[in-house]
TrEMBL record:
Entry GO CC: membrane
Pfam families for the chain: p450 (PF00067)
Name of the protein in its database record: Cytochrome P450 CYP736A12-like
Cellular compartments annotated: Membrane
Family that this chain belongs to: Belongs to the cytochrome P450 family.
Natural source organism: Cinchona calisaya
GO MF annotation: an example: monooxygenase activity
Classification via PROSITE patterns: CYTOCHROME_P450
Keyword field contains Transferase: no
Residues in the signal sequence: 1-20
Cofactor(s) it depends on: heme
Length: 498
């Protein structure tokens, strides 16, 4: 213990000297964007609390939409307006299209071979092309439509039973399981149960990765501290990497040994087919397959269902909006049958509810971090090579200069205008924009629209424990996916005639 404390102090002292020399000789403060003053060594890290997106939004109000901060030795640029976001994600897209070093992805993502954290370059470009063409194309997404209908049907049946029993349900837990099941079926071809991941539950392990990956890791900002692993995060990542690797190896072996003839090929089948055929134009072996599987799992499992959870929460607080959405669904589908994916086109009110919910509750409020690949001047400010770029879409979504009455849930603000959420309009970019934008947008949006429509069409909802809609706690837990802090306990009433 004493030795590690001694080590820590020695490292900090060394770091202090390096920091002072670095600031003295290399930092050209006068050309940097404005920003809050930092402390020696740690810079501005102490200004981040449990919900960094909220802290950064407050700071940006004072310092402006392009703000300079320092996290340890890393220069960080916080972007908090649509105009500034357009500069970073469109005008100079290529300069800012890389990702910074991320210890979690290094260990768990096969040395950052995963698409989401791969550095910008030919490998990332090839991998992204492969994923979009082979896994996330419209054709591929449609081939899983049957599976989605079946899984959402199972959820509706269990809610229907609860409705007949007059019981309350933990909707957060139920839709989270739906997310896990749909992802596993699409990626691995089967559902995984709680005892399928060593002695720990499948979901528990995935959630640990999401949680640990979101903890501010000193190793990402102070290379020396990374080596000492004072927070114990590296140890945790290494252990998780082992668990995942064993799991993925087993899945791949099972697929290779299986002689089953499948109508719909899952993602493992497709990836292994690419290795066998030698069709990929770049180095592509088991490590790459495992890295992509991890990406698809983490990308798909929690994102869409968390978006549904936020939308349902807002609808619970706004019965008028719920009635309007139910009316739209009744006019289009009636009450004699359930919603099908083919009904989703032209549900205008559903779309504006989703936009409004994603404006207030973006699933990834800071997107994923970007990194500059060279020095660049933006709006007259010097942005150094290897700066970390954080786009705060939470701040953009709640800016009163863009959105009148920004804290209120008013879906109608999107009616009759063409503000879209697919990355063309920088006021609303829940999936990012440009080269690093979300390749799973179409799949994600399909799931959000389908599950939300189904839940609102089939049931009326009231809050359990006599909670008034206005008292519903809307606190957030920041993470790679930012979800509700408190589970949604609700009582369903079935409203269809069949
Ligand atoms: C509602 C659902 C979803 C939302 C809101 C969402 C949001 C995002 C955001 C904000 C980013 C980062 C963009 C940036 O850094 O500029 C991202 C990246 C990514 N998403 Fe999604 N996502 C969703 C669903 C999905 C799904 C279903 C998948 C895959 C099955 C997926 C896979 C990915 C991947 C691989 C990346 C990294 C792309 C790259 O770095 O090139 N996402 N997503």
């Amino acid at each position: 213990m004493m030795t590690s404390i001694l080590w820590l102090w020695t490292t900090l002292a060394l770091a202090a000297v390096c920091y002072s020399l670095h600031s003295l000789f290399f930092t050209k403060r006068e050309r940097l964007p404005p920003g809050p003053k930092g402390l020696p060594i740690i810079g501005n890290l102490h200004m981040l609390g449990k919900n960094p997106h909220q802290d950064l939004a407050k700071l940006a109000k004072k310092h402006g939409p392009i703000m300079y901060m320092q996290f340890g030795f890393v220069p960080v640029i916080i972007v908090s307006s649509p105009e500034a976001a357009e500069k970073f994600l469109k005008t100079y897209d290529q300069v800012f299209a890389s990702r910074p070093y991320h210890e979690g992805s290094w260990y768990v993502g096969y040395e950052q071979r995963n698409l989401s954290f791969a550095e910008y370059g030919p490998y990332w470009r090839n991998m992204r092309k492969l994923c979009i063409l082979q896994l996330l194309s419209s054709h591929k997404i449609n081939s899983f439509q049957y599976m989605r209908t079946q899984e959402v049907g199972i959820l509706v049946e269990s809610l229907k039973q609860a409705a007949f029993d007059g019981a309350s349900v933990d909707l957060s837990a139920l839709i989270s399981s739906l997310g896990v099941n749909m992802s596993c079926l699409m990626i691995f071809g089967k559902k995984y149960m709680d005892n399928d991941f060593g002695d720990r539950g499948f979901k528990e392990v995935i959630q640990e990765v999401l949680h640990v990956a979101a903890i501010p890791n000193l190793g990402d900002y102070f290379p020396l501290l990374g080596v000492l692993d004072v927070q114990g995060i590296t140890r945790q990542f290494k252990a998780l990497a082992k668990v995942f690797d064993t799991f993925f190896e087993k899945i791949i072996d099972d697929h290779l040994q299986s002689s089953e003839h499948k109508q719909t090929k899952d993602f493992v089948d497709i990836m292994m087919g690419i290795i066998e055929s030698g069709a990929s134009e770049f180095e592509f072996d088991r490590r790459h397959v495992k890295a992509v599987l991890l990406d698809m799992l983490i990308g798909s499992m929690d994102t869409s269902v968390t978006a549904v959870e936020w939308a349902i929460s807002e609808l619970l607080r706004h019965p008028e909006a719920t009635r309007k959405l139910q009316k739209e669904l009744e006019e289009k589908i009636g009450l004699e049958r359930i919603v099908e994916e083919s009904d989703l086109e032209g549900l205008e009110y559903l779309d504006v509810v989703i936009k409004e919910s994603m404006r207030l509750h973006p699933v990834a409020p800071l997107l994923l971090p970007h990194e500059s690949i060279k020095d660049c001047t933006v709006d007259g400010f010097q942005i150094q090579k290897k700066s970390r770029i954080i786009i705060n879409i939470y701040a953009i979504g709640r800016d009163p200069n863009i959105w009148p009455d920004p804290e209120s849930f008013i879906p109608e603000r999107f009616s009759g205008n063409n503000i879209d959420l697919r990355g063309q309009d920088f006021r609303l970019i829940p999936f990012g924009s440009g080269r690093r934008s979300c390749p799973g947008l179409q799949l994600g949006l399909t799931v959000v629209r389908f599950v939300l429509a189904q839940l609102v069409h089939c049931f009326n909802w009231s809050l359990a424990d006599n909670t008034e809609p206005t008292d519903l706690d809307m606190s957030e837990v920041f993470g790679l996916v930012t979800s509700r802090a408190k589970h949604l306990n609700v009582i369903p009433t079935y409203r269809l005639h069949k």
